[in-house]
Write a structure and sequence with these properties.
Layout lengths: L6 E10 L2 E5 L8 E4 L12 E8 L5 E4 L10 E10 L2 E5 L6 E4 L12 E8 L5 E4 L18 E10 L3 E6 L3 E6 L12 E9 L5 E4 L4 H18 L3 E2 L7 H8 L3 H13 L3 E3 L4 E3 L5
Parallel strand pairs: 13-15
Antiparallel strand pairs: 1-2, 1-4, 2-3, 4-5, 6-7, 6-9, 7-8, 9-10, 11-12, 11-14, 12-13, 14-15, 16-18, 17-18
Length: 282
């Protein structure tokens, strides 16, 4: 059987001016063309050729000896070469670009974006790309340890869990939801620090500095939000983690550390229900 989206060895069963026809064997009626410019020199009827099977611009099965950047069961970062209303087209190393349907995108993609995608066969038996369901394909056997700095590619967002990252475009990792990742888009490359390795090998990441280095930045963030609230926050460090995350874009622990620093510096006062900025000179 000729398998769409895969590489396989097929036998040359017929030679024509514009290429050769390949099949599993000489008796198989299902045949696929290998265009003349793709045929290895000296190829004769009966020879085996290793080819990749896809579809041409007229939706006909065709083969190539070129190596695609993506095959069925795999995922890879591919570059967006054009964007249309129905979807985008990606460069995957073959003459025909790979279609990424709009519904399979995580956020809107733009030309020259490099996004992590997998290959699938749609209901019309066409090869397409998807930015979804990458999670199950990622590896969990990295050698990274807590404290290591890593590079990864953002590939999905979850309100419940956080921002999903493919470290080295291979390994499963997550930035927890209490960190502010609203400035990120799917496809972005980030530098992050490993904060933990789960028993199953998945990595926990942070974009933040170590606590003692991050505290000053968080304290400045608190002052900025205080300014937005005219100098009075309608909650204090005993507020729920959800409220703090929504308003401050940080965890409750980070917020408490920042508030503690500002309190010691006599820049704020804490009441039962609020935090007030102390005016300079008082």
């Amino acid at each position: 059987m000729i398998r769409l989206g895969e590489k396989q060895k097929l036998t040359v069963v017929k030679k024509v001016d514009f290429g050769v026809y390949l099949a599993e064997n000489s008796k198989d009626e299902t045949r696929v063309l290998l265009p003349a410019k793709q045929v290895p020199q000296g190829t004769e009827v009966g020879d085996e050729v290793l080819v990749f099977i896809y579809k041409d611009s007229k939706d006909r099965l065709i083969s190539t000896v070129q190596e695609p950047k993506l095959k069925l069961g795999e995922f890879a970062p591919l570059t967006v070469v054009s964007v249309q209303k129905i979807g985008a087209f990606l460069d995957w190393g073959l003459e025909k670009d790979l279609f990424l349907p709009y519904k399979e995108q995580i956020g809107k993609v733009q030309e020259q974006d490099e996004v992590l995608v997998r290959l699938y066969i749609d209901k019309s038996r066409r090869l397409c790309a998807s930015m979804r369901d990458i999670y199950e394909l990622l590896q969990t056997d990295s050698s990274y340890q807590t404290g290591d700095m890593v590079q990864g590619r953002v590939y999905e967002f979850s309100d419940n869990f956080g921002t999903f990252v493919a470290v080295d475009d291979r390994y499963s990792a997550l930035i927890p939801r209490y960190e502010d990742c609203s400035f990120l888009r799917a496809g972005d490359i980030i530098e992050a620090r490993v904060t933990g390795v789960k028993p199953d090998g998945k990595l926990d990441l942070t974009l933040r500095e170590k606590a003692y280095m991050q505290m000053d930045q968080d304290a400045q963030r608190v002052l900025e939000v205080l300014q937005e609230y005219a100098g009075v926050l309608p909650f204090n460090d005993k507020a729920s983690p959800e409220v703090i995350l929504r308003e401050m874009k940080m965890s409750k622990n980070a917020f408490k550390r920042a508030v503690g620093r500002l309190y010691k510096q006599r820049k704020i006062e804490i009441t039962d229900k609020s935090i007030r900025k102390i005016q300079e000179g008082k």
